[in-house]
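Students often ask why inverse folding is considered easier than folding. One informal answer: many sequences map to the same fold, so there is more than one right answer. In these notes we will look at a single instance of the problem. The structure comes first.
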C-alpha cells in the first residue's frame, strides 16, 4: 500500500487499535503465481504489529490454506471505517468529492498451527471483549467448538511490516473539517469517532 506521509498513523497504537476493532481481515497470498484472497477473522496476538503476530483460522474446505504449508509471505489487510465525502458537505466552491478511510496492511510469514481450538477460543475472547454484554462459552458450547474443529485450519502470521493510512480530511481547513466530521457523526459515527482521534 502506498502511504502518503500526511495520512500515516501518528502513533503505532492507532494501527493496533484499528486491527483490534476491525478483525475481519483479507489474507492474500499467491498460489502458482495467482493472487488468492480469503476474508477471515484475524486477531492480534500481543500488543504490537511489527515484530508481533496475528492469529487466524479458516475453513479446511477452502484450499487457500494449503499454500500456507510452505510458510510463505502473506499480506493481511484490515479495513476500518470509511465513507464518501460529498462536495456539498464543504459548503465551498470549488470543491471535489473524496473518500475518507482507515486501513492497515501487514506482511509476514504464515505458519499453520496444530491447536485450532486454542485459536478459535482466543478469537472469540478477543471479539467478545469488544461487546457489552459479552458472551461466555458454556461447556456445551465448548463441545460444539470441539465438534467443528476437523473443519477448521488455524494459522499464525509473524509480522514483518505494517503500513497504515488514516485519510481523514486532515488536509482541509478547520471549518470544513468540522462540517465533514458533523456529516459523518450523523451517518457514519465510527468514522466520526476516528476523526476525533486523528
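Output (designed amino acids):
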Amino acid at each position: 500500500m502506498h502511504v502518503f506521509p500526511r495520512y500515516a498513523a501518528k502513533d503505532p497504537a492507532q494501527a493496533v487499535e484499528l486491527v483490534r476493532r476491525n478483525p475481519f481481515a483479507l489474507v492474500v497470498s499467491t498460489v502458482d503465481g495467482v493472487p488468492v484472497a480469503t476474508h477471515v477473522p484475524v486477531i492480534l496476538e500481543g500488543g504490537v504489529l511489527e515484530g508481533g503476530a496475528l492469529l487466524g483460522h479458516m475453513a479446511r474446505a477452502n484450499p487457500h490454506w494449503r499454500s500456507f504449508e510452505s510458510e510463505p509471505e502473506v499480506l493481511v489487510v484490515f479495513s476500518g471505517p470509511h465513507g464518501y465525502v460529498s462536495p456539498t458537505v464543504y459548503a465551498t466552491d470549488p470543491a471535489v468529492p473524496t473518500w475518507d478511510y482507515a486501513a492497515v496492511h501487514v506482511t509476514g510469514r504464515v505458519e499453520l498451527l496444530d491447536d485450532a481450538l486454542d485459536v478459535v477460543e482466543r478469537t472469540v475472547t478477543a471479539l467478545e471483549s469488544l461487546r457489552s454484554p459479552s458472551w461466555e462459552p458454556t461447556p456445551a458450547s465448548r463441545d460444539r467448538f470441539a465438534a467443528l474443529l476437523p473443519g477448521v485450519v488455524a494459522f499464525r502470521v509473524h509480522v514483518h511490516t505494517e503500513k497504515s493510512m488514516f485519510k481523514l480530511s486532515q488536509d482541509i481547513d478547520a471549518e470544513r473539517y468540522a462540517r465533514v466530521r458533523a456529516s459523518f457523526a450523523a451517518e457514519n459515527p465510527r468514522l466520526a469517532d476516528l476523526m476525533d482521534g486523528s
